[in-house]
Amino acid sequence: MLRFQDGACATGELQVVSLTGGLLALSPPLHQGSVVKLMFITSNGPVTGSAEMLSPVTRSQQPFRFLTLQGEAQRRLQSAIQASLYPRGPQEEWIEKYRAAMSQVEPPRRRFSRFMLGTLALGLLGLASTLYVLHTHLLK
Q1: How far apart are CA 14 and CA 76, in angstroms?
Q2: Which residues pair with 66 in a beta bridge?
Q3: Which of 62, 94, 106, 118 is deepest in the core (most CB within 10 A)?
């Protein structure tokens, strides 16, 4: 998926990709020097970055170079490239998917500790109230 600076979108087929750029099948090709936001899906998740379109090599193939590729997107792309160069067995793929999923999970909130602290405070308040009432009745 390509998104232009004016908000318009176009689709193309990613034929070659590297950490610095790639080759898209586009019809018709875009103007050389056009800056687009590029998004594609890898086995490790989406990769989004800005790219500059280079001079078309054929009527339907156009190279691009990445201008920006943020940390997480670059990690996903690097991992996908490495996976294509060195295929892994099912266990390694499962481990990689698990690691990718765990990197996106938010740490658990401390609801339980807050609940316990609130329960303890309420219990102490009840105990103090009971002792106060018993103490005032014993003084009479």
Answers
A1: 16
A2: 51
A3: 62
Concatenated DSSP letters of 90-112: HHHHHHHHHHHHHHHSPPPPSHH
**CA separation for the pair 39, 73 (Å, rounded):** 10
d(CA 83, CA 79): 6
DSSP state of 111: H
**Taking the chain (140 residues) in consecutive chunks of 10 residues, what is each chunk's mean pLDDT?**
90 94 93 95 90 95 95 90 76 80 72 83 90 77
Sign of CA dihedral 10, 13, 18, 21: negative
Give how far Cα 64 sits from Cα of 11, 68, 124, Å: 14, 12, 67
The first and second tokens of residue 134, run together, are 């018993």
CA distance 118 to 124: 10
CB 78 within 8 Å of CB 15: no
Q: Which residue has the tokens 């989406």?
A: 46
Q: Give the number of residues written for the chain.
A: 140
